[in-house]
Write a structure and sequence with these properties.
about 110 residues; mainly alpha; 2 domains; three-stranded antiparallel beta sheet; elongated
Length: about 110
């Protein structure tokens, strides 16, 4: 299906096309000796999914950090700022958490620094 045909296809046709692509991809991975943990897989195409703490919205073409994740990180940052002395491992821990959210925030790497 070409890109022009795909954009003119109905939702059901697009869904069936995505299912076929999923089957082909799964088979190719199996032949390459990659084994999927099917209990962890979402085999039905979705427009909105939370993956590794980041919401992925393909309909609006964006990633964003859910409110519950933001509320998890704010106390860590406040605690870090309130300390008079901060160890390298404390900073490293917070930076590691923030870097994991990088795809959902501004693409400028300095935004996280």
């Amino acid at each position: 299906m070409t890109e022009q045909q795909y954009s003119q296809a109905s939702d059901e046709e697009q869904f069936q096309s995505a299912l076929k692509a999923m089957v082909v991809t799964s088979f190719a991975l199996f032949k390459a000796r990659y084994f999927l943990g099917l209990s962890k897989c979402s085999l039905i195409p979705e427009q909105y999914i939370t993956y590794l703490g980041i919401d992925c919205d393909s309909k609006h073409q964006r990633f964003f950090v859910p409110e519950k994740e933001i509320h998890r990180y704010v106390p860590l940052l406040k605690e870090l700022v309130a300390k008079q002395k901060v160890s390298f491992s404390d900073i490293e821990s917070v930076v590691g958490k923030l870097v994991s959210l990088e795809c959902a925030v501004c693409s400028n790497a300095n935004f996280l620094h």
